[in-house]
Amino acid sequence: MKIRLLCMLSLILFIQNVNGQIFDTITICNGDSALIYGNWETVNGNYPGSAGITTLIVNPTPALTGNFILNGNATQPFPNTYQLTQPINAQSGSAWNSVTLDLTQPFIFDVDLFFGNNDGGADGIAFLLQQVSTNVGSSGGNLGYFGISPSFCVEFDTWQNGAINSDPWYDHIAVQKNGNLVHSSPNCLVSPIGFPPGNLNIEDGLWHNVVFSWDPNTYNFKVVFDGTTLVNYTNNIVSNIFGNNPSVYWGFTAATGGANNLQQFRVNSLGVQISDSTICHYDTIQINPQVSSLNYSYLWTPNYNISNDTIMSPLFSPDSTTTYTLQVTNTYGCSSIGSFTLFVDSTEVNNFVTIPNLCEDDTPFILNFASPSGGVYSGSGVVNNIFTPNINTIGTNTITYNYTSSNGCSDSITQNINVLATTSNISNINVCDSYTWNIDNQTYTTSGIYTSVSTNAGGCTHIDSLNLIISNSTSNYFSVSACDLFTWNIDGQTYTSSGIYTSISINAAGCTHIDTLNLIIGNSSSNSFSVSACDSYTWNVNGQTYTSSGIYTSISTNTSGCTQIDSLVLVLNNSVTSSNNVSSCTPYTWNVDGQTYTTSGIYIFTNINSNGCINVDTLNLTIGNSTSNSFTVSACDSYTWNIDGQIYLSSGIYTSVSTNAAGCTHIDTLDLTISNSTSNSFSVSECDSYTWNIDGQTYSSSGIYTVISTNSSGCTHIDTLNLIINSSTFNTTIEKVCDTTYLWSINNQMYNSTGTYTYNSTNSSGCIHTEILNLTVASSENISIGINNENISCRGYNDGSITLNPIGGTSPYHYLWFNGDTNQSIGSLYSGTYSFTVTDNNGCSLDSIVTLNEPDQILLNFNAVSPICRNDESFLTINISNASTNIFTVSLFDSILKLFLIDTNGLLIPDGVPIAISPNFSTDVTIVSLTDNNGCVETFNEDEYVEVKQLPEISLNLQDVCSGHPSFTLNQATPFGGTYYINDSLSDFFDVANLEIGDYNIVYKYVDSFTLCYNEINEVISIRESPIAELNFTPQITNINNSNIFFQDNSIDIVASICDLGDGNIIYDELSFYHNYQDTGTYIIKYYVTNQYNCTDSLISELIVNPKYNIYIPNAFTPNGDGDNDYFLPSVIGVNKYNMKIYDRWGGLIYNEDNGKWDGMINEKFVTSGVYSYSILVFDFSNKPFKYTGNFSLIK
Fold first, then answer.
1. How far apart are CA 166 and CA 147, in angstroms?
2. Domains and CATH numbers, the chain
3. Torsion angle of alpha carbons 1116, 1119, 1120, 1123, nearest 10°?
4. pLDDT one-digit tens code per residue, 195-227
5. pTM for this predicted structure
6. How far is CA 581 from the centre of its chain?
């Protein structure tokens, strides 16, 4: 809705002459201007001129203002100005507008924000959209919005909680959701941004202009701060934050914690626009401009298909696109005008072409015949706009095309598609080796399923199928080699000579089977060996090596493939070996070979033993030597020799004898020289410090100190210092005197000027002691006082304060008030005179007094309209006098505490009308207090009694009905005697038969004849769509061999079903299932469905299970009248009908009847005995044809 101001200048001139001075009053509408003393003025105020004073009153134009509902510490000290927090710690305030926002409509809010004048203050202001309530808010440290969820928040943060909320170091703006202030969390939608230029400090004591805007078409939200766009955010917040509910509360929150600021806002303009909309042809839409007040008048133009052109939210139902204009006028005569366009979408479906008959095996095809394209086809056999002819679609199929435009407008059209059945015949044949099929005259030599395709009478496919089993003659051939003899498992015979043998039998298929045996008989053989050897023997027969005597055999296969056995008788004799290990420190003679050896080594002697095998002797000889070592050592004081572990204290030559690793003698010799260590000791006493000449170090504390060095012998030398340090001492005295001299008791001297003085003496340790005097001599003539005082803001308040600011003298200053308080500032004071004394750090004092003042008392008179009916309004008449301002906030209690902004005549600002209350019960209405424009509160607690007559209690008990329900008269409401309205039309007849599916608003209105109070109640009664029961089952008709029936529900939007299958079985809530019938017959299927509205429908259908198709045709009959075999006819089961033709031997047709039997007569005369031909055409339960031809004999 594009809003513009209707330029209506209301100029009302009041002239009053007081003591020769003229007072004028001019009234205009917001957005207009008035020429006052040569200037065009647009703002409320008093304008002085030479002729007098002119008062300009600017009345508001209609807008989405509503009232702000204040919570916590929030107040309204001035018109259109809302203080969220005072500059006091631990405050929290919130202000929520009483008009909820519809986020399907755009808005632009132009406000000013004030963040205080204390850069170290806190916490900031937040703008919120939320769905909780209009009384929410949180404590300091959290800007007042912590935990409000769901919500969309723009925060103006002036306190940096870096570690907690990831705040930057500067004042910033950010966008958060769901009451979460942490910028590093997923709930941060727009990261913190500083204020231009250069991260501006916004706690600057200035008002800052902020414009919030929302575009629901692009989901774009913007924040413009002092003319600069800081937030440009796009997100479908209705869906992603508010759960697709566009109705939200909106307002501001603020809080203080350990730091504070004065935080407030004021509203410049609140613009809510009506977006252009689109509806379907014949639809109705209700438009809500969100500019709501009982004191506004409305005019919609043109008055074209509008339910009421003078109410706020009428119903619109144009049949073509129309632009409407709304003029809203308030009680001041000021107007706003806006317009929007209502587009009408007239979508229509046409041109669904006729489709020729199809066969069930035709190729699926895409349905694309209707226009406009892009819709959805539905019906039997349709999936994803593709129709598939098959066995389930045989017959007539109704196809529906539904089209929905981009605006959600829809239309539909239907068309029928006929699908014809294919036919088939199956022959089962079992033969040996080959078969010639009379259908296609082909000869087949292998088993398989063969088909022949032709066309039936309906033009669809006919398929003959041959299920052929070819059983073949078989044979096996066996080649066998055996040793000595062979028993053949085929015939059980044992054969001992080679040859070819056969056995003939019948195989499993009933055909000839021949087994042939080609047999070769071979013989077994053997050998024996005797052998003697030393140690081991390798037998060349099997390649094995044997290490012990024995009889061994080896079994193998000879050249005939039979067993070969070799035997070995083996005798083994052993060789002998010996080995000796010898160690010697001298040459060694070996008694085995008589040789003498002087070096270590391994020596071997070999000969032949008594068994004729080798004898080997081995000598492992080690020759060892004696050894010695010599050591020369110099040491200090003593030496421990690691060879023998002895400690030696004097010089000398020492030896140690041992055995070496070879077991021979080892001698160690030590040549030792011993030298001695030295030491000195010193004792010293000094004042403050001492420098030791031994190490050059200066020591400032007593103690024992050592220095370690090396003497001329190369051994340790130790010097030891035993030191005592005594300390010098001092003392400092600080003294301050005012207007006098000072006597120092240390030296008995008098001093009269500021300075530092010293005196030296000797202390008890013999060191120097120094006394220091720091003296200040001051004068009280140098002190004066600056006084900052805050008078009492409101009569009877104790919010006065005094702050003393000393000038001159020496700080810190000491304060003493009349009540003993010692602070620089004193607060919580009533009006009166207060005394104080200020003393500086030098003891100089100043005495004085301060006087605080307070405003005069406000006077009030009021009454209320009584009696009223419940929900009616009682208007209050209020007169305020002896006031210094014209604007007041009245605190009124009528079971709950309410706040209103009024003038001294008791009229609401800006509406200019009295306060109206609507209590539910009789009550006292109490004016608790008045708060003036300066925030002063005057308590009254004056009350007026308002009698409230209760509305008649009425009830309306209606139930939803289903389509098809009988129409009825509305008479359910109590008490009787009222009137009924159906969708705002006066009527008590609910004509279900002629009403469309949907919701209908029923209103019952009743006036009590005694109290004359009126009440009404409304309920919505819905006509619910009844379901249409549809159940398909297949195959049908069928026989007992194919009686497993598939049931498929094709009903729409059902939640429950009951299927009575006619054989005692009932199925609940199954949309598709199989059921196997155990017997032939006709079954009555009863199907009941229920939809989500508890509406029901049912159907009854027949299901037929026939016997299995079978036929027998006799080859002779005897028409002799004996009652036995007197007629020729086929014997059939599972048959619908048959036609029988009989021919004589020359081919002449002598009989042609349906479902008949031949009695052997032509023209009532018996024919002669002989052979006759027949042609019988049989139709089974599905009208599938079977044709039989053949001959039979007539015998008399």
1. 17
2. 69-271 (2.60.120.200), 277-345 (2.60.40.10), 350-420 (2.60.40), 426-471 (no CATH), 475-519 (no CATH), 523-573 (no CATH), 581-621 (no CATH), 625-676 (no CATH), 684-704+716-727 (no CATH), 784-852 (2.60.40), 859-946 (2.60.40), 1031-1106 (2.60.40.10), 1110-1194 (2.60.40)
3. 100
4. 988 888 999 989 999 999 999 999 999 999 999
5. 0.33
6. 89
